[in-house]
Amino acid sequence: MRSLVLVSWCFCLFAAVSSQNVGTQAAEEPLNLPISVCTAPGNCQTEADAVVLDSNWRWAHTTTGYTNCYTGNLWDTTLCPTPETCTTNCAIDGVPLADWSGTYGGSVTGNKFNLKFVTVGPYSTNIGARTFLLDSTKTRYRMFQLLNREFTYDVDVSSLDCGLNGALYFVSMDADGGAAKYPTNKGGAKYGTGYCDAQCPHDVKWINGLANSKDWTPIPGDANSGKGYYGNCCAELDIWEANKQSQAFTTHPCTPNDQTRCEGVVCGDNDSGDRYNGMCDKDGCDFASYRMNDHTFYGPGSTFKLDSTKPFTVVSQFITTDGTDNGDFKEFRRFYVQNGVRIENSKVNFPGITAYDSITDEMCAATKGLFGDLDDHKNKGGMKQMGEAMRKGMALVMSIWDDHDVNMLWLDSNYPPTGNPSTPGVARGPCPTTSGVPSEVEVTQANAVVSFGNIKFGPIGSTV
């Protein structure tokens, strides 16, 4: 996932405790979200999981008072002259149930989780959010071992238009949020710590239990977010990135796959020209129906095979070489169910290219060759390397965000925006290249909501 916009706290409510920790007056109360773990068709057990808010969105303040350590898009230079001092001086706080809907736009209805894009609270305006799924202990992320398994959920993106992304994906975070590895991380998974992804994001405020305040620079045009010296990398499996105009699913292997704080070349930063010199495949191998030249498969209205103005079910299957949990990852398959009808995934639709309908090494090589893209997916180990992250276990992320880097054009418009849309791979969606500007999207789509529900996980063929 790319960088998200963060809430800017400008007030003080709770008493504080030490280090990267939590306050004593604001109880941490995750949102209960039941999921189903299946063993066979019709044989699923409900488990009492919960949704926790990423620590990036939490109020950071002094451990001895109420003074902000982070305001707007800047760390306080007096409290945070170095990452170590900042970590000693500052704490993060809990999220009580009332703040979920009133501040962050999150709510649960039955087994459905909803995230509203912009929430104007009594003291702040929150834009976007990123959340993780905890297991029934409420202290650890649920780790999904995905090989030879099926993952299913219902989604509603009907209110998300050009420039927005309602995303559900997996990343190779530590189950405890890194608390065991990094003693200064006092919050752990219970407080949403440890986020990483294949973009090696520099906007993560806390990495390895330390404030990422070194060389922190505000992001131009973003009143709430910035970038620090360090990035935080790990493998990423994008199950769903979408608005009602376009959608994609993508594999992003890394070497190594595990959470790794990066600096310099291995971060693969675009600004330094090192995108393909880093440890992660930032492009990934994507299957996006519109980009694969099927412009009738997905979109708003009954003329499309999959109508994005109505809810539907997304089914992802992770096929191994030998059909067992021990095999290597070879294929990411996808189909949908809407109005009780099974809808097979679209196919690659270019002359001279096999009509692939899933992600495989062969599909990645063929489409990247056609598009003229560097095959960094292969260079980073391809499907097999992606599978090693899946074998170990990955945490589930659900988010809604806009894009201050390239206005989400990579998902729903022509990208690069100056490219010829008749060139294979350039057209990724029907949105204008002038769309997706955050300052506009945050006003016109403030009330947009993405919903994920009825999550099921089990052997292939067990969840639908």
Automatic annotation (TrEMBL):
One of its GO terms (biological process) is glucan catabolic process. Its EC number is 3.2.1.91. It catalyses: Hydrolysis of (1->4)-beta-D-glucosidic linkages in cellulose and cellotetraose, releasing cellobiose from the non-reducing ends of the chains. CDD domains: GH7_CBH_EG. Disulfide bonds join C38-C44, C69-C90, C80-C86, C162-C431, C196-C234, C200-C233, C254-C280, C262-C267, C285-C364. InterPro entries: ConA-like_dom_sf, Glyco_hydro_7, Glyco_hydro_7_sf. Residues 1-19 form the signal peptide. PANTHER family: 1,4-BETA-D-GLUCAN CELLOBIOHYDROLASE B (PTHR33753), GLYCOSIDE HYDROLASE FAMILY 7 PROTEIN (PTHR33753:SF2). Belongs to the glycosyl hydrolase 7 (cellulase C) family. This is cellulose 1,4-beta-cellobiosidase (non-reducing end). It comes from Daphnia pulex. The gene is CEL7A.
